[in-house]
Write a structure and sequence with these properties.
Length: 75
Amino acid sequence: MLLQELKEQVLKLPPSDRLALVSAIIESLQDTPISEPERSSAIRRMRGLLKTDQPAPTDEEVAAMLEERRVDKYL
């Protein structure tokens, strides 16, 4: 059965049966271990998104940014 056919069949079920199906799917996924290489790879990619060539802002710069935001928002 193709995914699209399965979706069509699921939509024909009463809400209580669909909820039971969702629970069964979630339980089956919780029992599936995530391999360490996949997790490590994902972490490396996320760290890469956070990298920048600029230094972190100073406390004074952060205070100025917050003040500017407040002025824009409330005035």
